[in-house]
């Protein structure tokens, strides 16, 4: 099986996999030292003088031999583990080198495209062009929110050309990660999610979540570290709760995608009335109406999933969109996960209705997409290849670090066990552990 760019891809060795070997097989790590130890131990426990001893001495000899063999077996097992991790590390190093080369080749190919020509303005309304800027401004208005602090930190990190460990795993704020063609629909979906969710910080992994907030030994928030520490340093104390969504812990959409769709929309089954027909006025599913930047369509999460099948499916699920309240209410028999209508109707879930107007609508909504993305044939597939190859490279780097840690630990344990065996052979009978009783008692099995 080959990955993108002709890179051979197979699952790396499982570090936790059980080893399959003969207990007496030769250790590859330190053959000369081990052979020396094994030869000396056998000479000691099988010498003619000791064989001629009485029954008590004979039992002692057998106990020494048993413990010596156990130490040797342990040493051999550790040696095989060392060899196992060395082979894994060698394979992963070669794989990462190949992936590095593939990423470079793919990026050179992508660089030949003129991205500026991919976008065509769909509407002439100048307010739509400023929509994204307004979304950022409205986030920053909530100056003591986690979203505003994270955004300020990202701006500062970029301005200082430095890597902040606090934000390296942060993808963005919910309100900035999707766009909609229709300003009214954007407002309605923002109202459906609510201000707290629109301001939620989105992280790739749980490690990224933990980096944002640090606790002291008493379990209290340490205001000098994490996001709280940065907030205090810029005079914007972070006192209120804020949501953080971890993509690693979200169960992604498990179904199919619409075939040959560059936006990777989900192949969700249309609602059906008892008579088998699709309800009148049904416009589609909210999760598929969100426009997502191309670089977030593939391998955004640690597990290789994009934002549509993780974040937005988690937020909207099968939320249905209808033309009017009347259409939505007529479709009640087939609404299970909520619905909204373009004239302001809203059903949170089956049996839960949001009534009234929206005069006090939240001040934050998704940006309105004023441009149509129209890339040439083959571009999206090439960009997907780069994204997936980078994701594989990132996973391979993590596997290499894990294998190196396991190898270091195995080598340490090997050396420790080797010294234990050498000390035992040097000191003789007095070093037999207490679990091997001298004289009476049964032999260790």
Topology:
Elements: H1 31-45, H2 48-51, H3 55-110, E1 119-121, H4 126-129, H5 131-141, H6 146-159, E2 170-173, H7 183-193, H8 195-198, E3 201-203, H9 206-212, H10 226-233, E4 244-246, E5 282-285, H11 286-289, H12 308-316, E6 320-322, H13 325-330, E7 339-341, E8 346-349, E9 352-354, E10 371-373, H14 379-427
Parallel strand pairs: 3-4, 6-7
Antiparallel strand pairs: 1-10, 2-3, 5-6, 7-8, 8-9
Helix pairs in contact: 1-3, 1-14, 3-14
Summed up:
Strands 5-6-7-8-9 form a five-stranded mixed β-sheet. Strand 7 (339-341) and strand 8 (346-349) form a beta hairpin. Helix 1 packs antiparallel against helix 3 (55-110) and helix 3 runs antiparallel to helix 14 (379-427).
Describe it for me?
By secondary structure, this protein is an alpha+beta fold. The protein has 14 helices and ten strands. The longest helix has 56 residues, at 55-110. The two termini are 47 Å apart.
Q: Record the strand order, biggest sheet.
A: 5-6-7-8-9
| Largest β-sheet summary | 5 strands, mixed
Radius of gyration: 32 Å
Helix content: 40-55%
Indicate the low-confidence ranges by residue numbers. 1-46, 434-445
Organism: Salvia divinorum
Protein name: Protein DEFECTIVE IN MERISTEM SILENCING 3-like
What keywords describe this structure?
single chain, 445 residues, alpha+beta, five-stranded mixed beta sheet, three-stranded mixed beta sheet, 14 helices, 45% helix, 7% strand, elongated, Protein DEFECTIVE IN MERISTEM SILENCING 3-like
């Amino acid at each position: 099986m080959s990955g993108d760019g002709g890179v051979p891809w197979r699952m790396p060795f499982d570090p936790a996999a059980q080893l399959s070997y003969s207990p007496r097989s030769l250790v590859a790590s330190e053959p000369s030292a081990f052979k020396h130890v094994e030869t000396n131990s056998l000479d000691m426990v099988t010498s003619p003088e000791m064989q001629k001893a009485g029954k008590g001495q004979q039992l002692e000899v057998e106990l020494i031999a048993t413990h010596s063999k156990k130490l040797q077996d342990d040493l051999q097992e550790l040696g095989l583990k060392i060899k196992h991790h060395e082979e894994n590390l060698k394979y992963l190093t070669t794989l990462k080198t190949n992936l590095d080369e593939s990423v470079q080749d793919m990026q050179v190919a992508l660089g030949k495209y003129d991205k500026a020509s991919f976008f065509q303005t769909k509407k002439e309304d100048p307010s739509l062009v400023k929509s994204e800027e307004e979304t950022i401004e409205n986030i920053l208005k909530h100056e003591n929110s986690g979203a505003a602090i994270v955004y300020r930190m990202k701006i500062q990190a970029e301005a200082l050309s430095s890597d902040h460990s606090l934000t390296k795993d942060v993808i963005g704020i919910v309100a900035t990660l999707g766009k909609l063609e229709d300003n009214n629909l954007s407002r309605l979906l923002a109202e459906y999610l609510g201000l707290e969710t629109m301001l939620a910080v989105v992280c790739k992994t749980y490690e990224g979540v933990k980096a944002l907030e640090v606790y002291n030994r008493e379990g209290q928030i340490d205001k000098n570290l994490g996001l709280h520490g940065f907030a205090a340093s810029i005079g914007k104390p972070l006192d209120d709760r804020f949501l953080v969504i971890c993509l690693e812990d979200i169960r992604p959409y498990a179904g199919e995608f619409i075939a040959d769709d560059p936006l990777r929309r989900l192949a969700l089954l249309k609602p059906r009335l008892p008579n088998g027909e699709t309800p009148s006025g049904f416009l589609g599913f909210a999760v598929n109406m969100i426009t997502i930047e191309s670089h977030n369509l593939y391998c955004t999460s640690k597990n290789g999933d994009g934002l549509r099948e993780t974040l937005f499916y988690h937020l909207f699920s099968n939320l249905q969109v209808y033309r009017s309240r009347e259409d939505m209410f007529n479709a009640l028999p087939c609404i299970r996960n909520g619905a909204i209508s373009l004239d302001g109707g809203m059903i949170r879930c089956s049996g839960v209705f949001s009534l009234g107007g929206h005069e006090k609508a939240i001040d934050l909504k998704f940006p309105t997409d004023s441009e149509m993305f129209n890339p040439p044939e083959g571009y999206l597939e090439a960009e997907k290849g780069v994204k997936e190859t980078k994701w594989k490279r990132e996973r391979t780097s993590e596997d290499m670090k894990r294998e190196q840690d396991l190898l270091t630990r195995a080598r340490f344990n090997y050396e420790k066990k080797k010294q234990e065996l050498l000390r035992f052979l040097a000191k003789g009978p007095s070093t037999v552990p207490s679990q091997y009783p001298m004289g009476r008692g049964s032999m260790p099995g």
